[in-house]
TrEMBL record:
HAMAP family: Malate_synth_G. Belongs to the malate synthase family. GlcB subfamily. Residues 158-187 form the Malate synthase G alpha-beta insertion domain. It comes from Sphingorhabdus arenilitoris. This is Malate synthase G. GO terms for molecular function: malate synthase activity.
């Protein structure tokens, strides 16, 4: 049982109170009594408003359900549909043309273009890996992945043939990004005689063994070391090529974590505090030895040049939906978790602003918070007001706390300009979250009829419009040069060859960042930002017409009378059931919120709650409309439980799925209760069953 202490009329979990009073508050200049008093006032002011916004979501959804019941199937009269959406407040008037006013933004966000990592906050090793992913070895990235079009490395240590192929492709990249005045990098001789570049301005300095260059705003360091095992066989003594890779990283307290109580929240806050101080230390076993990992220092070059050694860090708070038992209100109810995150993560970031640790994050003096799952401009305005209040409690200047808006709910993407306007003086980020956006698309029109198959969603007209509108509206609101316009995750970390072919599409849209699943992927994806000058591309995209609402609001429902074969139905159910079980069993039993989960074809894909939302809502939709029966769904779950058990046979912590296991019950509930879940979210049921599992483990 959680032990509570009273602070300013609130019941605070003892471990959270201890964290705040003995770790987070010291050095910030914020008094303990003022902090708890401020939190009490914050909750008194914002918790009822938060509740009202959630009630408005439910009221709007009820009206949508009624409308679709009366007008089933694809939208037949788009003007009438949009008039209805305006009538119920789903669509709001567009704001007059405006430009965001955000100031004091670090260059990694405002004026540079490059990859972005997202990493679960509860794992100290992972968050340090992400922070340290600012620089990556191009040699290592090619050698260890299928991005290199060459035979796999032979077993038994270093493979010289594959190594030679790595060197060749890396030097070909240098010819692209840093061309020599004459000849190729493969022909470069002794560098001590100088390196003549086609554009001498690309050379910016040197380290003890490296020469530093710049292209498209990103740095490349070529390491010369004839004594190195690789450099000794290179005619120029080149031992490695380092790329500036993950410019930014998001430390995630939301979709990629299983944080359900005070214990989990304190772990996440503690890791964030350690990153903000620069003194986080992760120790773990590797190869029979204890390894300690810390944050990299900044990088020093000639003429006093210093470059950041770490990615610039955001923290992603939770959305408006969930509450958490870490703090109880005077009436005994749980506090809204998003309000807690806003105050506690900002408090932790004050250690960076005040330089209380050995390393710094924001050189511009800002705190960067990503806010997910907001529905429309009214909820964005709520976040803006909440951040105002947090700044007042902590004694921070107005707009110190910046916000990243995830454009991942249908009501937000349909009103994106108004959403940006609501946070126009603190916004630093918009990003398309097409996974949650697909889940919300299905739940919003749940009553319209059976949805098309999940695999067909990616070619739906609304997704094309959604991705293009995100960039076009962002540019029209003046984000270029001031904020990030982002794109979504590459979900297959073992398929880097495919990523290299496809993901250049993200910078080509005019997005100056896109998500990657690993530091290695960040280094490879960085190549795309050398091949595409994003800020030049943004000028071209800004001249294009922004897609209108018609394609965006075209729902992916199957035509009336459409029939799928029995084999198609079974295949769709099994694919969804396998994905649900594979993710949920780790979430419930082991508290793993994001990991590489084998799909039905045994391909490892990065899964989080957003992918779970799609799969569970899709089965719920087919079940509701009679495309599948309860018996068919249960049969798919039973069959796929055996497959998931087999896929996890080598995990010593894995617990098999049985009809009585808590994880299996959770998976079924996500489908059979999916129709009534708020906006189709998975969090309420996941939290319920995870808490049940934790209680059972304690006995």
């Amino acid at each position: 049982m959680t032990k509570y202490v009273n602070r300013s009329g609130l019941q605070i979990a003892a471990e959270l109170a201890d964290f705040a009073e003995n770790k987070a508050l010291p050095g910030t200049g914020v008094a303990v009594e003022a902090f708890w008093g401020g939190l009490s006032q914050l909750l008194h002011r914002f918790a009822p408003r938060n509740k009202d916004l959630l009630a408005k979501r439910d009221a709007i959804q009820a009206k949508l359900d009624d409308w679709h019941k009366a007008n089933p199937g694809p939208i037949a009269d788009m003007p009438a549909y949009q008039a209805f959406l305006r009538e119920i407040g789903y669509l709001v008037p567009e704001p007059a043309p405006f430009t965001i006013g955000t100031q004091n933004v670090d260059p990694e966000i405002a004026t540079m273009a490059g990859p972005q990592l997202v990493v679960p906050a509860l794992n100290d090793r992972f968050v340090l890996n992400a922070a340290n992913a600012r620089w990556g070895s191009l040699y290592d990235a090619f050698y260890g992945t299928d991005a290199l079009d060459a035979p796999p490395a032979k077993a038994g240590g270093y493979d010289p043939a594959r190594g030679a192929a790595v060197v060749a492709v890396a030097k070909a990249f240098l010819d692209e990004a840093i061309p020599l005045a004459s000849g190729k990098w493969a022909e470069l001789g002794d560098p001590s005689h100088g390196i003549a570049l086609a554009d001498p301005a690309q050379y910016v300095g040197q380290s003890e063994k490296g020469r530093l260059f710049r292209h498209n705003g990103l740095h490349i360091e070529v390491i010369f070391d004839p004594a190195h095992p690789i450099g000794k066989d290179d005619p120029s003594g080149i031992a490695d090529v380092l790329l500036e890779s993950a410019l930014t990283a998001i430390i995630d307290l939301e979709d990629s974590v299983a944080a359900v109580d005070a214990e989990d929240k304190v772990l996440g806050y503690s890791n964030w505090l350690g990153l903000m101080r620069g003194d986080l230390d992760a120790s773990f076993e590797k190869g029979g030895k204890t390894v300690s990992r810390t944050a990299n220092p900044d990088r020093q070059y000639s003429d006093g040049l210093t470059l950041p050694g770490r990615s610039l860090l955001f923290v992603r708070n939770v959305g408006h939906l969930m509450t958490n038992s870490a703090i109880l209100l005077p009436d005994g109810s749980e506090a809204p978790e998003g309000i807690l995150d806003a105050l506690f993560t900002s408090l932790c970031a004050m250690h960076d602003l005040k330089g209380l640790g050995p390393l710094r994050n924001s050189r511009a003096g800002s705190i960067y918070i990503v806010k997910p799952k907001m529905h429309g401009p009214e909820e964005c305005a709520f976040t803006n007001d909440l951040f105002d209040a947090v700044e007042d409690i902590l004694g921070l200047d107005r707009y110190t706390v910046k916000v990243g808006v995830m454009d991942e709910e249908r009501r937000t993407s349909a009103n994106l300009a108004a959403c940006i306007h609501a946070v126009r003086d603190r916004i630093v980020f918009i990003n398309t979250g097409f996974l949650d956006r697909t889940g919300d698309e299905m739940h919003t029109a749940m009553q319209a009829g059976p949805m098309i198959r999940k695999g067909e969603m990616k070619t739906s007209s609304w997704i094309t419009a959604y991705e293009a509108r995100n960039v076009g509206i962002g540019l029209s609101c003046g984000l270029s040069g001031k904020a990030q316009i982002g794109k979504g995750m590459w979900a297959a970390p073992d398929m880097m060859a495919d990523m290299m072919v496809q993901k250049i599409g993200h910078p080509m849209t005019g997005a100056n960042t896109a998500w990657v699943p690993s530091p290695t992927a960040a280094t490879l994806h960085a190549i795309h930002y050398h091949r595409c000058d994003v800020f030049a591309r943004q000028k071209e995209v800004a001249a294009l017409a922004v897609p209108g609402l018609d394609p965006l609001l075209t729902i992916p429902v199957a035509p009336a009378g459409h029939n799928w074969s029995a084999a198609d139905v079974a295949q769709e159910l099994e694919n969804n059931a396998q994905g649900i079980l594979g993710y949920v069993v780790r979430w419930i039993d082991q508290g793993i919120g994001c990991s590489k989960v084998p799909d039905i074809h045994d391909i490892g894909l990065m899964e989080d709650r957003a992918t779970l939302r799609i799969s569970s809502q899709h089965i719920a939709n087919w079940l509701h409309h009679g495309i599948a029966t309860r018996e068919q769904v249960d049969s798919a779950f039973s069959k796929m439980a055996a497959k998931v058990d087999a896929q996890n046979a080598d995990d010593p912590l894995y617990e098999k799925l049985t009809p009585d296991s808590i994880a299996f019950k959770a998976a079924r509930a996500l489908v059979f209760e999916g129709l009534v879940q708020p906006n189709g979210y998975t969090e309420p049921l996941l939290h319920k069953y995870r808490l049940e599992k934790k209680a059972a483990a304690r006995g």
